[in-house]
Write a structure and sequence with these properties.
about 325 residues, alpha+beta, Nucleoside Triphosphate Pyrophosphohydrolase, Glycoprotein, Type 4 Pilin, Dna Ligase, domain 1, 3 domains, 7-stranded mixed sheet, 15 strands, globular
Amino acid sequence: MTPRNPYPTVDIVIETGGGIVLVHRAHEPRGWALPGGFVDYGERYEDAARREAMEETGLDVELTDLLGVYSDPTRDPRHHTASVVFVGRATGEPRAGDDADRAEVFALDHLPSPLVFDHADIVRDYAAWRASGVRPPLAGPRLGRADRAHIALTAKDELDALLSGRARHQAPWESRGVLAEPGACFVTLRRRNGELRGCIGTTEARAPLGATIREMARAAAQRDPRFPPVEPAERDDLTLEVSVLSAPRRISDVSEIEVGRHGLVVTHGARRGLLLPQVATEQRWDRTTFLAHTCVKAGLPPDAWRDPATEIEVFSADVIEESEAQLAG
């Protein structure tokens, strides 16, 4: 039997000009990606990273750190790859080359879509690391590419059906796999300029995830008390995001909180507040600031987390963007 092993690859987060460099792929899968590619036989991974950076962006990159290893078998739709992800810095303007038809610098809060492969996860981990100084945790089982695409499609279908008045599409994947299992999630709606338009969810996995996604998509559009119901004319200006949550876990010491990995639930008596992991990353909060804002969300004083009677729970989230719907096979 011929052995089959994952293909070794590298990806590089290149810091320059106040942002990171992304390339637009000229071949399938089309979309934006971190510079990177395959490691040649007899080549060191570090050398492969610098070579790929030069070939795709024209930049001479100084490698400064190692972010992690990403090896989900579904990360590349063509075959199983395992990528060592480096961080580096460079100066100058990127120029597209090799299999990239564009190369540009993007701020972390204005990223293009779609980001192909698992590069949205990598960039999210990078942003959390830069904000907190805490390295990404060793990955537990994450949702695969197909699961993520089906989750995005389910939420998108519910929102589109709600705003257009058409019937919902009941897709076959909703009756099997992860969408048929009990799951908890939040659905977030934003305007394309990043402004929040609605966010509703649950931390309790009482119903199948697919049904919960549909319920929360409707609720985010219609029942967020901070906003009026979404009007059909707004749809083209909206994007959605689904955060699939792990079960909350009570902690005994705030040192257990990992900014960028954990979301927070703060409870004191009848008051309860929740903030998703990506909120701290987007706002570049440290642990204390994250705790303070979660307390305020609960209607408590900012330092209520110091009260022994306050219960603090953490959870993690797989964050799926609407653009991932187009990656379904």
